[in-house]
Amino acid sequence: MCAMASRGRRGGAPTREDEPRRDKRAEQQAPAPQGPVLPPPPPVDYGVFMQGLVQAMQTQAHTQAALQAHLEAQTHYLLRRTGVVGDDTLAEEAVETDSERGD
């Protein structure tokens, strides 16, 4: 007998190798569902489903791109405000505005 087969069970009888193992939890049946029994769902039109899925993914991609652009603009703005990064285009625009006013 192998080590596993020589171990005793809860009832004290040793396990035999040719005896099928039973799990008491598996023998219990699931409780009956309570409430009304719903009819099966209608058939799925997978073409329509896939179109909706593609549209949702495109919307998500556009939203993600817009959020990324906003985050980059906000980061650049904050870096300029704190003096970490200079912006040559703003300096050029300021000079043009000053010259237009006659300063």
From TrEMBL:
Q: What is this protein called?
A: Uncharacterized protein
Pro residues composition-biased segments: 33-44
Residue ranges, annotated region (Disordered)? 1-45
**Compositional bias per record (Basic and acidic residues), positions renumbered to this chain:** 15-27
In its UniProt entry, the species of origin is given as: Colocasia esculenta (Wild taro)
Which lineage is the organism of this entry classified under, starting from the top rank? Eukaryota, Viridiplantae, Streptophyta, Embryophyta, Tracheophyta
